[in-house]
Design a protein that fits this description.
83% helix, 185 residues
Length: 185
């Protein structure tokens, strides 16, 4: 597999994490590089690790996970997205919505956005290539786009905070629906 193909795969896999990072940036009250770095590290590492896990799982695991991986991603993203919309609609100035820097929330978001990487890792086993280089590239691209997403979301969120919080929830639900529809069709 050539570097161009790996880059296309990396950008495609990173799009979910990028969208969730934008949503997370909207929620964060003021931009901090440490917050962007934390989110980017989680998303980048999870993307790379899930790719490697998928690769090692191979054919036998493919049959097991392919039947419900889309349901897992769908359920997690819809749950978090609905919660974001609910919190944005009932939010008072002193209320706080889901904290994307909370380790549990970050873990759930990272897992939900990296389920596709698991499936890609399984498919890469058929190409008989080493998984190290693609995992590093995919992790780095996801890291960079996720950090940029937090920044973009935070800067746009200053203007339309509640609308972007609802939009962030809608984005998460849409990603979950896209994953579900793609796998069911």
């Amino acid at each position: 597999m050539d570097i161009i193909s790996i880059l296309f795969i990396a950008f495609a896999l990173a799009m979910d994490a990028f969208a969730v990072s934008i949503s997370s940036g909207v929620i964060i009250s003021y931009f901090r590089w440490t917050a962007a770095l934390k989110i980017a590290i989680f998303f980048g590492i999870f993307q790379a690790i899930m790719l490697v896990i998928g690769w090692f799982a191979g054919l036998s695991f493919r049959k097991l996970i392919s039947g419900f991986d889309h349901w897992i991603a769908f359920g997690l993203l819809v749950m978090v997205g609905c919660r974001m919309i609910y919190e944005a609609c009932k939010k008072n100035e002193t209320d706080k919505i889901i904290d994307p820097l909370n380790i549990f929330v970050l873990f759930v978001l990272s897992l939900a956005t990296s389920i596709d990487a698991l499936a890609v890792g399984i498919s890469l086993i058929f190409l008989k290539i080493s998984i190290i280089f693609p995992a590093i590239i995919i992790g780095i691209i996801t890291f960079l786009l996720s950090g940029a997403g937090v920044y973009i979301g935070n800067k746009l969120g200053d203007y339309l905070e509640k609308k972007f919080e609802v939009l962030g929830g809608i984005i998460l639900i849409s990603i979950g629906l896209r994953i579900l529809i793609t796998h069911l069709s």
